[in-house]
């Protein structure tokens, strides 16, 4: 079973990297990009076969290590 | 004072920190990150700067989960003194010993230079060698020193006099110009500037020595 974790800076936390990307897109002539937020995608291969258990387990991993919940939010997709 | 300096793969300020502590009169041991227990009888644990575990995932995130860090958290929980400098500060926020988090510098640049700081409180074992409002020069060397803290926590830090140092000319976008913060019991200090790099006149400055001397004086009988 595979899990895909998306980690993003929380709304309201300034994302200077996203802002630099937005600026670069403007320089390249892509108009109308009003905001860019940059995050991470982490893919996990899990031995677990039960979807609910996998979700619970990955949520714990996010809380403990994969995201810093002081500044980041996360979401998990199980496939 | 008996002190330990924790060494992670990628630490690069560990030896400078040992020298600065020894010059202040401390008996210093270096402790490898895989050790599970701290040496007995310590007064201070110092977490040095560098790029522990290559800054993978987030600065300090992997180091914060290492076996020795669990012992450092327990040590702090029992009232032990802990100093985290630069990457050490990032590690201490990741362990939850200090509030907030360190983000990428607002201008995205790695910055390595002497910066003016203002001492915001002399009420701690770390800062009692300075006077409140004193201006000092200490170098910074970081890419992720943009201290981020929510407004509610910031209010608590201010109200409880827990902001130790602020930048004179905010170099990295830190909330409220914060360069260093204290824990609730005032025994854990995290700071992005490097006092150990300003502890020898031959290396350009000595404004950091007062911090190490204050610790040695405070903890001598501890």
From TrEMBL, chain A:
Gene3D superfamilies xrefs: Phosphoribosylformylglycinamidine synthase subunit PurS (3.30.1280.10)
This protein's pathway: Purine metabolism; IMP biosynthesis via de novo pathway; 5-amino-1-(5-phospho-D-ribosyl)imidazole from N(2)-formyl-N(1)-(5-phospho-D-ribosyl)glycinamide: step 1/2
Record has Protein biosynthesis as a keyword: no
GO-annotated molecular function: phosphoribosylformylglycinamidine synthase activity
Known EC number: 6.3.5.3
InterPro entries per record: PurS (IPR003850), PurS-like_sf (IPR036604)
Catalysed conversion reaction: N(2)-formyl-N(1)-(5-phospho-beta-D-ribosyl)glycinamide + L-glutamine + ATP + H2O = 2-formamido-N(1)-(5-O-phospho-beta-D-ribosyl)acetamidine + L-glutamate + ADP + phosphate + H(+)
Entries under Pfam families matching the protein: PurS
UniProt keywords, alphabetically: ATP-binding, Cytoplasm, Ligase, Nucleotide-binding, Purine biosynthesis
Major place of residence: cytoplasm
Subcellular location field: Cytoplasm
Superkingdom: Bacteria
Enzyme class at the top of the EC tree: ligase
Homology family: Belongs to the PurS family.
Subunit structure: Part of the FGAM synthase complex composed of 1 PurL, 1 PurQ and 2 PurS subunits.
Function per UniProt: Part of the phosphoribosylformylglycinamidine synthase complex involved in the purines biosynthetic pathway. Catalyzes the ATP-dependent conversion of formylglycinamide ribonucleotide (FGAR) and glutamine to yield formylglycinamidine ribonucleotide (FGAM) and glutamate. The FGAM synthase complex is composed of three subunits. PurQ produces an ammonia molecule by converting glutamine to glutamate. PurL transfers the ammonia molecule to FGAR to form FGAM in an ATP-dependent manner.
Designated name of the protein: Phosphoribosylformylglycinamidine synthase subunit PurS
Species lineage: Bacteria, Pseudomonadati, Pseudomonadota, Alphaproteobacteria, Rhodobacterales
Gene: purS
UniProtKB/TrEMBL annotation, chain B:
Subcellular location: Cytoplasm
SUPFAM superfamilies for the chain: Class I glutamine amidotransferase-like
Functional pathway: Purine metabolism; IMP biosynthesis via de novo pathway; 5-amino-1-(5-phospho-D-ribosyl)imidazole from N(2)-formyl-N(1)-(5-phospho-D-ribosyl)glycinamide: step 1/2
A single MF term (Gene Ontology): phosphoribosylformylglycinamidine synthase activity
Keywords associated with the record: ATP-binding, Cytoplasm, Glutamine amidotransferase, Hydrolase, Ligase, Nucleotide-binding, Purine biosynthesis
Catalysed reaction equations from the record: L-glutamine + H2O = L-glutamate + NH4(+); N(2)-formyl-N(1)-(5-phospho-beta-D-ribosyl)glycinamide + L-glutamine + ATP + H2O = 2-formamido-N(1)-(5-O-phospho-beta-D-ribosyl)acetamidine + L-glutamate + ADP + phosphate + H(+)
PROSITE patterns: GATASE_TYPE_1
Keyword ATP-binding carried by entry: yes
Pfam families: GATase_5
Family matches, as PANTHER family: PHOSPHORIBOSYLFORMYLGLYCINAMIDINE SYNTHASE SUBUNIT PURQ
Database matches in NCBIfam families: FGAM_synth_I, PRK03619.1
Protein name: Phosphoribosylformylglycinamidine synthase subunit PurQ
